[in-house]
Amino acid sequence: MKKDIDESWQDRTKLVHGGTRRSAYNEVSEAIFLTQGFVYDSAAQAEARFVGAGDDEFIYARYGNPTVAMFEDRIAAIEGAEDAFATASGMAAVSGALTAMLRAGDHVVASRALFGSCLYVLEEILTRFGVEVSFVDGTDLAQWRAAMRPGTRAVFFETIANPTLEVIDIAAVAQIAHDAGATVIVDNVFATPIFSDAIAQGADVVIYSATKHIDGQGRALGGVILGSRDFIRGTVEPYMKHTGGSMSPFTAWIMLKGLETMDLRVRAQASSARALADALEGHSALSRVIYPGHHGHAQHALVTRQMGGNGGTVVSLDLAGGRRAAFAFLDALGLVLISNNLGDAKSIATHPSTTTHQRLSEERRAALGITPGLVRLSVGIEDTADIIADVTQALGTV
Fold first, then answer.
1. Contact criterion met (CB below 8 Å) for 144 and 176
2. Residue 247 DSSP one-character state
3. Sequence-ordered alpha helix ranges (H) in 228-383
4. Quick one: CA torsion of 77, 79, 83, 84, rounded to 10 degrees?
C-alpha cells in the first residue's frame, strides 16, 4: 500500500518517509521487489494494464517496479518535481533526457564547462544523429542570448561546473531559454538536492547522478531524471523503457537507504568543505582555492542568492607547481583517497586533466580552466580537523 506524502513535512522527513509502499507484511525498511515481471489475475487485466497502468500497477521491471517507484516518489518530493524516472547511471539520465526529446534538425545550446562524458554525448552522439549543438560560456548571459534561435529545443548546463566550480545563474538562463521556447535541462549533481532549488528557479528538467550524494557511500551506479509528469511519463518513460536504461530494484533500495541520511551527510560535508577552503586560503603551494561558498569565489553573490550561501561538498585546489606538484600532493595524502567519484562519505581527490577530462585537448582544458595543477577534492564526512590536517601535510611535501 502506498503512503501519501504529507506536504507539511520538512525535507528531512520526506527523505525518510516519502513515497513508502508497504507490502501485506507491513515491514519497516522498504521491501526489495526483485522481480522482472508481474502476474495478472486475467487476460483482460493484462490487456488493461498495458493500455494504461495505474499508479500502483506494474508490468515489467524495465517499465517500473514498486521499489524503484518508491525512490522516484521520494526524490521527486524533495526536489519539488511532479515526477521522476530512475535510471541505471547518471550518464543514462543525461543521455536519456536529451535523446528522448531531440530529433534531427533540433538545436541545443550548452555550457562548455561540462563533465567529459556529458561533452561526449553532446559533441559525438547527438550530432551523429543530426542535432546541432552550440557551446557558450555558461557564466556569460550575453552568449546565451546570442546563441538562441527559432530551432533551439533545449539548453543544458551543470549548475556548478565540474571541476572548476563555476556557478550558472539558473533563473537568468531559464528566462532566456523560455523566451526562445526552449526546455531547460540542468545537471545538478554538485549543488545536490539539499542546497539547490533548481525547479523553483526555472529549470524544467533536473538530472542527478545518484551514484554521488544520493547513495553517498560508493556502493552503486544510478541516476534520476526529474520534471513535469507530462515530460517524465510522456517523453522520458517511452524512450527509457524501450532502450533499457532503467534502474534495478536492488539499486533503488540502496538509493532509498542513502536518501535517509543524505541531508545529514551533505550538510556535514559542506561545512567541512568551507572550513577546508578557509584553512587553505593563501597557502604558498596553491595558486587558487576554488569553493563556491567561499567569499573569494567569483560568483559568491550568486551562490548566496541561488543556494543560500551553501557551496556544496567539493573544493578545487590549483597547485602552483603544475602536474608534478599535483601528483606529489596526491601521493602524499594519507586519509583522502585517490579516486574519481565524488559526494562520497569518504574524502576523495581527483586529477581531472589526466582522468575525468583527459579526452579533451590541452587547449580545451586550458580554455575551461582545467590546469595541469588542478585537483578536485570531494570532502567526506570524516572529522573536519582530520581532513584539514591531511590536506595540509600533503601540501607541505610539495
1. yes
2. P
3. 229-231, 237-243, 249-280, 300-307, 322-332, 362-368
4. -110
**Are 198 and 166 spatial neighbours (Cβ–Cβ below 8 Å)?**
no
Q: Give residue for cell 527509457.
A: 240
pTM tops 0.90, yes or no: yes
Give, to the nearest 10 degrees, the angle between helix 384-396 and helix 249-280.
60
* Residues 279-304 as b or e (16 or more Cβ within 10 Å = b): bbeebebbbebbbbbbeebebbebbe
C-alpha separations of 266 from 40, 263, 293 in Å = 42, 5, 14
Whether 373 shows a pLDDT value over 70: the answer reads yes
Instruction: With both helix axes pointing from N to C terminus, report the angle between 322-332 and 384-396 in degrees, rounded to the nearest 10.
Output: 130
d(CA 94, CA 100): 10
Helix (H, G, I), strand (E, B) or coil at 396: helix
pLDDT at 166: 95
For the chain, helix (H) and strand (E) counts, in that order, are 16, 12
- The span from the CA of 186 to the CA of 20, in Å, is 27
Strand locations in the chain (E):
83-87, 107-111, 132-136, 152-158, 183-187, 205-209, 223-227, 286-290, 314-319, 337-338, 348-350, 374-378
Give 149-170 pLDDT, tens digit per residue. Answer: 999 999 999 999 999 999 999 9
Q: Residue 1 has what pLDDT?
A: 65
Helix (H, G, I), strand (E, B) or coil at 57: coil
- Residue labelled with grid coordinates 538562463: 173
Go through the domains of the chain in sequence order and give each one's CATH number.
11-258 (3.40.640.10), 263-396 (3.90.1150.10)
Q: In this structure, are residues 68 and 246 in contact, taking their beta carbons and an 8 Å threshold?
A: yes
Q: What is the tens place of the pLDDT at every residue in 112-134?
A: 999 889 999 999 999 999 999 99
> Could you tell me if 375 and 330 are in contact, meaning their C-beta atoms sit under 8 angstroms apart?
yes
How is residue 77 written as a grid cell? Answer: 518530493
Whole-number pLDDT of residue 161: 95
Q: Each residue of 308-363: pLDDT tens digit?
A: 989 999 999 999 999 999 999 999 999 999 999 999 999 999 999 999 888 888 89
Q: By CB neighbour count within 10 A (0-12 exposed, 13-18 middle, 19+ buried), where does 352 fall?
A: buried
Question: What's the mean pLDDT in 84-101?
Answer: 97
